[in-house]
Amino acid sequence: MMNLFSKFPLIIISTIVILYPSLACNAQVYPKNLITNREQADIEQAAREFTVLIGIKNLGSSRIDEKGSGVIIAKQRNLYYVLTAAHNFDDEEAKDEEYVITTHDGKSYPIKNRIQIWNRLSPTREKLDLNVVLFTTSNTKPNYKYAKLIDSNNQLIADSSPPPLDSVIYAAGFPHSATGFRFASGRYKGDRISNRGDKEFSGYDFYYSDDTNVVDYGMSGGPILDQNGQLVGIHCYGRKIKSSNPTGTHISLGIKITTFWEKAPSFFREQIISSP
């Protein structure tokens, strides 16, 4: 009897050794939300500084009609590069020179150039819902911040650390329904390709939920940031899904930064890499 009982510890130990690997396989590797309120506030402040308003200046007046948002992604001295949604420029009556960029300090600058990003590998050479627009300041000051895309090894940051499924993301911009800057939180829902955005454009491959139901018209072209504050996408469209919740659920569409990087002309990539 004593000999049989003395074997029990060995049986228990062997059982633990067998079960432990299966428990590790089922464990959730990436916590859904590790960010603190302070870290979120820092990300919001950074987004506020590199997110811009895109509008049309009325000739003969100082009024600016808001069209959308954008994010500064590079600079060369006093020349700035802004990535935004192409459909922000769908006003057929407005000329490019009438569009202006308004920065976080309230200063407005005319757009100098606008470049369409194409899916060059597509048989039909589709237009992505992405534009890069340029503006200049009168001198090197003010020195506007930009969303950093490249690490110290000249590698795309978003390529090395894509957001895990259901992780926290943030969207920023200037909605038509409110005055000023807005910062919203959501969850990354995957990278399915969708054509549910603008019929003229393509490339919508970033899905996310809008937990706060505040992503609205006017935020198109604004940045989508991960919970480290890195730029991972450009917001393009939002749509409301019917549910039992009276407020409904918002699912938004964007385009991944990795997609932009793959399709952008080489001289754009060179300018971004060489940004100080």
Broad structural category? alpha+beta
CATH superfamily of the largest domain: Trypsin-like serine proteases
Helix content: 10-25%
Q: Which strand order do you get reading across the main beta sheet?
A: 5-4-1-2-3-7-6
Distance, first to last CA: 78 Å
Total count of domains: 2
CATH class of the largest domain: Mainly Beta
So how many helices? 6
Task: Provide a descriptive summary of the structure in words.
The chain has 276 residues and is an alpha+beta fold. It is built from six helices and 13 strands. The strands form two sheets. It has a seven-stranded antiparallel beta sheet. Strands 8-9-10-13-12-11 form a six-stranded antiparallel barrel.
Write the layout of secondary structure elements.
Elements: H1 2-5, H2 8-26, H3 37-50, E1 51-57, E2 64-76, E3 79-84, E4 99-102, E5 108-110, E6 113-118, E7 127-136, H4 157-160, E8 168-173, E9 182-190, E10 206-210, E11 223-226, E12 231-241, E13 249-256, H5 257-263, H6 266-273
Antiparallel strand pairs: 1-2, 1-4, 2-3, 3-7, 4-5, 6-7, 8-9, 8-11, 9-10, 10-13, 11-12, 12-13
Key structural traits:
276 residues; alpha+beta; Thrombin, subunit H; 6-stranded antiparallel beta barrel; 6 helices; 20% helix; globular; disordered N terminus
In short:
By secondary structure, this protein is α+β, with helices and mostly antiparallel strands. The chain has helices spanning 2-5, 8-26, 37-50, 157-160, 257-263, 266-273, and strands at 51-57, 64-76, 79-84, 99-102, 108-110, 113-118, 127-136, 168-173, 182-190, 206-210, 223-226, 231-241, 249-256.
